[in-house]
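Write out the 3D structure for:
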Amino acid sequence: MPVPCLYLPEILFAGGLVHRDLGLLVDANGLAAGYSTRDSAPPATQTILLPEKALLPGLANAHSHTFQRLFRGRAEGRAAGGDTFWTWREQMYRAAAFVSPEDLYHVARATFLEMAGAGITVVGEFHYLHRDPQGCVYSDANLLSRQVIAAAQSVGLRICLLRSAYFRAGFERPPHPGQSRFYETPEEYLRNLVDLEQDFASADEVTVGTAPHSIRAVPLPELKQISQYAQARPKFPLHMHISEQIGENAACVSEYGTTPVTLASEHGILSPQATLIHAIHLTPAEFESVAVSGATICSCPTTERNLGDGIFPADTASRLGIPVAFGTDSQAQIDILEDARQLEYHLRLRDRQRAILDGSARTDWASKEPIGASLLRSVSSNGYAALGLNGGTLAIGQPADFFTVDLNDLSILGVDAESLPAQAIFALAKSAVRDVAVQGRLILRDGHHAHEAEIRGRYQEVQRRYRKHSN
């Protein structure tokens, strides 16, 4: 029978404030129940001492494609004639065609284990592998979705399975053989989405959302239908890649006479339930429309840097009060805190100035938050909200999803309570992460997972076969 716990670190960051000599009270249901000293904890509370550690809200990975971890570092060479996002996709298609349902499970487990080791407690899995390698429907049309969900459950991560709609290769383009596992008809998609949602309606730490892949993959009539389905359900998330590439915008203009975000705005797609992935190449008017709609933007700086997508103008989003979340996307690197610092550093290189996102020094911004606090909110509670979830601050009544860091780790050695938010963003290395809890249950203890050896071994087996397949 679960009992209330007091997690007692040296420094606690919760509710947006830094506390010394206080621990996080977690009730028997895994919810944050307050902050307490050891002496003032309620009777029968189990105390878990976390000496020389800081405890922070869990990090949210709002945009992930787990199977792409399989070819990390294997698509970095330059192709004859140049290498772009569009040539990189051919490498991705080869990995997508390779994985069996069992392979997908093992790749996802290893990817989620790495996320846990980076302090991530919830992942939004933007999932678009639906069919078998020949493009045929499995007897269970949601088999691959279930495999990814089972992998998250095995590791202990909270997951929002964002089931992706993918209906075509693009405007006036024939079906692409590399996308054969992605395609469904609109009728199949909605039926399978409803089935998945119902099957996991009461599952612990599992939710479902919708993810029309992009304007190029989902025509406008079907996009509107999916959006209406989402908006009819409270907090049901809708995520979509949008304006990642100039070429994507140009194709949308050819088909509809306008760019993707303007199209989405004019047809009621934007809402507080919507999260726009990347959203790099927007006009000032489009940023204004996103702000008015209440939608979130999810930036993926590591992938955007890796693919040469461009720099997301996060200062424009911050000025307008647009919530920004983060995702690891292609798994080229899994480090949400690194993504947050690089978001700022990209802007410093662009403008040749420092502290671009420090709202405390701005007179015309919606938020006056110091830079450390602002980016910590983006890596935690903004990501939870983008996935339709309550959490990310450890406020009373929220899920007790958190991670701890070793205050003696060289990356933050000498940190004090006052500088913790800024040091977490601009200095903390993954090597400092020691414990991770989801719903009050520790899934990582002193840097180790109960099943890590088996997860690593299974992943290595898949990698060996993939290398032979690719050569």
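The chain has 15 helices and 16 strands.
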